[in-house]
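Morning run. Coffee first, then this:
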Amino acid sequence: MVLPFLRIGLRENAEKELKAIEEKGLNTNNVDNAYKLVEIVKGIDKINMMQDGGEYSRDGYSRDILLPPVW
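And here it is:
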């Protein structure tokens, strides 16, 4: 189990790094780091949501694609 204060600090650091990448501009040198940082933030959000009693798919983070009905 990751302690809440560690998740908060990790998320803040990831967001800070993403902001720095945004300011410099996304390029071939930093796209991999940006992807990993986004995955870290998403993972922390998922942990927080699950610990708060939410369900991953119920709260809008489902991998299911909603397609319009075919008539």
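The helical segments are 4-24, 31-51, 57-61. Good start to the day.
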